[in-house]
Amino acid sequence: MAGRHYKSERVKAESWSKRFEEDKRLGISFHIGIPGAIKLLLLISATVALFVVCPYLFHDMESMKVEKPLVTNNVLICAIPLAVMAALSVLRIRCSDTVQNGVTLTAFFLHPLLCMIAVEWINDTYTLQNASNISKWAINYLCYLLIMAFFFTIFRKISTAVLLTSFFSIIFFGVANYYVIQFRGTPVLPWDLSALGTAMDVVGGYEFMVTFPMAVSVIYAAAFWFIIAALVPKRTEVAKFRKRIERLASAAVCAVLIVLIFPVNLMNIMGYEVWAWDQETSGKLIGVAANFTGNMQFLAVEKPEGYSKEAVSEIAAQLDTEEEPAALGSPLKPPTIIAVMNESFVDLASVGEGRIELDNDNMPYIRSLIESSSTISGTAYSSVIGGDTCNSEYEFLTGNSTSFLPTGSKPYQQHVLNEQTSVVSILEEDYGYDTVAIHPGSKTAWNRDTAYEHFGFDKFVYSGIFDVLRETERSLVSDKSNYDQVIYEYENHEGDKPLFIFDVTIQNHGGYEYPGYPITSKIKGYEGDFPQTEQFMSVIKKSDDAFREFMDYFIKVKDPVLILFFGDHWPRLEDDFVELALGIDSIEEISVEDNIRRYQVPYLLWANYPLEKSEGDEISLNYLAGKMLRAAGMNISPYMEFLTGFEETFPVFSGIGMKDKTGDVYKQGSETPVEEYNELINKYAMLQYNQSFDAENKDNTLFEAKP
Known about the structure:
Layout: H1 2-23, E1 27-30, H2 33-53, H3 68-90, E2 91-94, H4 97-122, H5 126-129, H6 134-155, H7 158-184, H8 196-202, H9 212-231, H10 240-261, H11 266-269, H12 279-286, H13 288-295, H14 309-320, E3 336-342, H15 348-351, H16 364-371, E4 376-381, H17 389-398, H18 411-414, H19 423-430, E5 434-438, H20 448-455, E6 459-461, E7 472-473, E8 476-477, H21 479-491, E9 499-504, H22 531-555, E10 561-567, H23 575-582, H24 592-595, E11 600-607, E12 618-620, H25 624-631, H26 638-649, E13 652-653, E14 657-659, E15 665-667, H27 675-692
Parallel strand pairs: 3-9, 3-10, 4-12, 5-6, 5-9
Antiparallel strand pairs: 1-2, 4-11, 7-8, 10-11, 13-14, 14-15
Helix pairs in contact: 2-3, 3-9, 4-6, 4-7, 4-9, 6-7, 6-10, 6-13, 7-9, 12-13, 14-27, 21-22, 26-27
């Protein structure tokens, strides 16, 4: 038995020795098989699709003309990795464990660098242009290395980790970030992940063109994966102990990077910080991944300096001694109140200050109301541009300012997570109103269904339950249909309670590249130079027409009616047009004073009873609800009284900047040279924190209407 056992062990040893000798030799064999044939078929199909989608791979991107040297270069750039992938589809490669381990280690640390270069190239950042800045490259590289380590820890297979890291980096940080900047003007931010459903609601209005960097990055990422998968195939004989060691090592790298990037805040230590007020430039300066991770530090809402229950009580006591703001209207009974927040409604001719002259006024009716002595009107300032409508809603409904929230916050997703006091709760609980919200999009867009419930709306009418015909403009529900639904709610309102309707439109949403849309307004001297702007202005003309019909209905109503109309934010238009409108040389070097003008939107308050003109024609959205209640002849809450007084010092206080009573403009988040101003701003922050983030110590009397 002993001899047999000895012989068996010797045979086994010889077998392993032979295998070891074979594994030391590189082996390459041709093997088409079914898997190889499938790979080739998929590769050919993908290649054909690529050149159908990206015909400009053979053209000059500027002139779209065929240029022989360019064609030759582009063909070579794309053909080499495609040929490599084709070859690897039909070749079987065998190499030693030592080579495989070396390839695994190399891929683990090299692939994050390649992903970083691809992402920065796709987004044309300064990080790639300034390759000598090692520290900036390092902080971005560590972000991609963290992604790689995470996927390797989960799957412990280098080819899978390479594939998933490529997909996440190039598609999310590269392609998605590029398009979001084009359409919204800001890069992808951490909290955007919760807004994917909202994005899909309006994605049809934009034109998506795959750029040359995108196409080449995807091709080379695929080729890299083919190489790794061929050199490091699935190894079933690797010991479990070794697998655990590799996974533990990868997990350790992952843990160290998480600590360095977040709690230690390595980016800050290295002298880089997020430009909260200009996220697009911030991403270009410090890199896409670094900007994204840097913004994650803003997820938590911090207590204002000196905040306490006692400090809030002191502010409340001060408010008790101050004179209440005067009413701006005196209806004989509680009026029907309708607040219309109109999507991307901007008076570009007014912003242009004479530089923009239209051949056909695109908002004659609303302009006539703004200029009328019977309305309260002027210029409001939003905190967002090109999107993030929910932020404008939040500021209007609550009186809060997004300047006190983490940079780039989407309040409906992040902060409106329980019952919130607002103008809705004041009207409903203190004045007995029925409250209705209307928006002709998906009910879950921006989590409106949840947020509106927390604000206390009795009813939410969304696209799926409209009672009127939903006509469209550029495939988006028209303002006319929106207003028809408002009228329907007014006419079918039952009971003796007065009615408040908050109507959010969608017609004017970007992008402005809808084929064949009739252009009715052009810029004199620049006809055809700004096609997106011209389409936008023509859409606004439709909006103006619809509002005229809407007002024609309520002008005839005998019972008291109060209507507030305001735009939610600027659209995303051509940079050259913005430079022309603002009278600046470069949008990339815009000053704080010029930049805040990109957030101007018109507002007006109309009633079928007399209104008192208020002081000043500039305001920000966080003050509008208080002004609306005063126009309805109502007492407002102590918090709104504070805001009315605060408005006298800061007529404009938005998430972008603040303008004081002397006209001086300050970047939001910075201290002013006037200590009294800074103390007042901190009081505002305390009241907002008490209202929204300190349920245990909330002073409800501050946020209810005074008896």
